[in-house]
Structure formats: structure tokens, C-alpha cells
Design brief:
Elements lengths: L4 H4 L3 E3 L5 E3 L3 H15 L1 H21 L4 H5 L3 H29 L1 H18 L6 H15 L2 H10 L4 H12 L1 H17 L9 H23 L12 H15 L14 H5 L2 H29 L1 H5 L5 H9 L2 H18 L4 H16 L6 H23 L8 H33 L3 H24 L2 H4 L6
Length: 467
Amino acid sequence: MVYSSHQFGDDTQRSSSGGHVSIPDPAAIERSAIRKVSWRLVPFVALMFFINFLDRTAISFAGPNGMSKDLGLTAAQFGLAAGVFFIGYILLEIPSNLALHKFGARRWLARIMVTWGIVALLFTWVSSLSGLYILRFLLGVAEAGFFPGAILFLSTWVPAKHRSHILALFYLAQPLTIVIGAPVAALLIDAHGLFGLAGWRIMFFGVAIPAILIGVVAWFYLTDKPSQANWLTAAERDWLTAKLEAEEHEKGGKGAPALHGNPLAALTNGRVWAFALMYFGLIYGLYALAFFLPAIIGGFETRFGTHFNVFQKGLITAIPYLPAALALYLWSRDATRRGVRSWHLSVPALIGAVSVPLALQMGSPAASIAIITLTACAIFSALPNFWALPARFLSGAAAAAGIALINTVGNVAGFVAPYLTGIGKDVSGSYQLPMLIVGAMMLMSAVLALTVGRTSPEASLAPVEAH
């Protein structure tokens, strides 16, 4: 096969006829292939994730801006409504990810997205507490499998040493959802009266439609695997396919064999469960913050005598997440350069454990938001680096089951965190006790990260280098 010099660099040799024949440079092929995957797939899947996280957390904007009042919700009822999403999500998480492995990411992720978009649209007309509970449950059923499916999909496109970087780019969508989504949600809520609907109902309508549209696009845009990608050159397809197949035989370190085709082995593996509990603590912090930060900001008026309109509250809600996006990128960049180590998880988890209870001890809104920003930076710095680890010793059907199990256990925290936070608020009258619980959960994650780091072979935590 003859490769053009502009594709793979300037390494050429003169042929017998006097012309120049290009010799393919493996390093150039690698750079080109990873760059194309980064630009072709990651932004689109990140956009899907952006819409996904916005739709599941839209209730956090609706609650303090009319929904709780119109439906007569207590803090505990709001927390249960936020958390019941994860019951349906958990029930179908593993089956959905196994279906993705069987039918392909393109069709399955597109199906998930259109389905959750339709359910999200129905929130526009919810009229009772029971109806809210039912729709939140159904939204969880519809979204089940999307996040672990997206992680699995991207993990099967890049070799291990590039994975933490790719996942970090993907994960940027989560904090940016709040940076962009909070002001957008506020603008939609401010459109109160449009079509005769309350502002919070218009907000639900506005964030649901993009899920349906992008889901349809995903069916035609995504590609299941490198060998099917006509947007890669033949050399790039061959390199990616060969490299990924070689790594399937190298996963896991000394004393830690890879788990490949047996889902049951992954579901009963001790290290998978250690990762699952670690993820539980991180997700507990994430969703306690995501679902209740707008309510905490709303409480500034009572605590400090301040007053903010809906759009100002949306902007304040977004403040912690922009530095969090920067911290996520820089921390993951360091992890990619050094190889993900246990301290890439334990250090931010420990910072989160200490900072989150302090946030409500501050004497001003600015100081409170500053500490919450530190917490958000800690949580988002840990998450993408976390997901770089399980994929190093899981593959095939075991990867689908193991990653889904980890995400399922983590999402139990998605149910428990808002519900316990709401109960704690109703019982104690403030968010101080619930935030202490958040700190304890993140401390558990920090300890587990250090424990896994000591008991796992270094090779299982370091990136697999090219041979």
C-alpha cells in the first residue's frame, strides 16, 4: 500500500526510478488517528452527555422556581422526586449496556436519547406529586445505559494511553452543562406565560426537544468501531484495530488477569466492587451538589438578606462549574502525562471531603460560593480519571457488565444523596448536616482510592505503552 507523505510526515526514500516513495511513520499515523477520533466522535458524544445531564438535573432549576410551590413539595418530597429517577435507571443499567454490546453503540445510544427526550417532554404537563414521581422513574428507565454505554463506546475507540485524555474531553460536558445550562434554564423560566405555561414548564419543554433531535442525528452520525470508519484512512483504521486488539491480550497487571467475556466474573470481582464503592462516594457528592445548589443559593436571601432574580441565581449556580471544567481538564492532562495514579483520585476526593461541609459555615454568599467552587473542582477532577482505570482490566462482555455495575452502584448514590439531603434539611432546618454526610462519603472514596492503589500492581494503574 502506498501512503502519501502529507498524511504521515516527511519520512521518504528514493525509489529505483528516482521518485520518492513514502514510508508510513507509525507515530504520525497514531497522532492522526487519535486527532480524528477526538474531533469526530468526542464532541458529539459530549453534546449527547450535555443534554443528558441537563435533562436529568432540570428538576433542580424547576424546584425553587415555581414547581415546588405549584405542586406543594416539601424538601424531602423534592429530594425523593429527584432521586427516584435512579431507581428506574439502576434496574435497567446492566441489561441496557449488554444490549449496547450486542446491537452496537450507534443504534442503542440513539434509541436511548430519543426515548428519554420524549419522556422529558412530558414534564411540561406534570400536575401532581404522584405524576412527578412516575415521570422521574420513567426518565430513569429511558436514560438507563447511556452514560456507561458512552464510556464503553469511547473506551473501545482509543488505546489505553490516550483514554484518560479522551474521557476528560468527554467529561467536560458535565460541568459545562451547568455553566451553560443554568443561565439557559433561567432564561426559559423567565419566559413565564409563553403558550399559557408557567416558566418552569417552559424550561422542561425547552431542554427536552434537543434530546429528540440529536438522538435522530446520532443514528446516522456515529460509527460503532474503527474498522467501519470511512472517515479514517486505511492506515489509521489498521493501526487502531491492531492496537486495540493487542491491548485486549495485555489488560490487567501481574497477578490481576483481565476479565474478558464472562459478565458474571466481572459482577463478582472484588476490585470491580471496590471501584463501585469509590464511585458511590464521588457520585454522592456530585448529585447532592447538582440537585440542591440552586436551593442553597435561594436560601442566601434568608441567611444573608440578599436578593437575586431568577437569571442572577442561574448565573451564580454556574459560577462553581467553570473553574471545575478547567480543573478537570488540567488534572486529567497531568494524569495522561504521568499515567493515572491512585492519588489522582484520592487527593481531589479528600479536598472535597474537607471543603463541602465548610461551605455553609462561611459568613457571606461570596465565601460560600468560593468553597463550593473548590468542592466542584475536586469532584470533577476525580471523575474522568476514575473511569480510565476499570477499562484497563475489563474487556468484551465483562467490560459491558463491569462498567455498568460500577455505574449502577454509583447511581444508587444518585437516589440516596438527594433524598437524604432533603430529609436532613427538613429535620435540621439547614443544609449543614446533609453536607457533613457528603463529606463523609467523599472521604470514603479517598480512602478506597489509596487502598486500591496499594493493593493493585502498578502496571494496572499505569497506561499501557505502545510496544
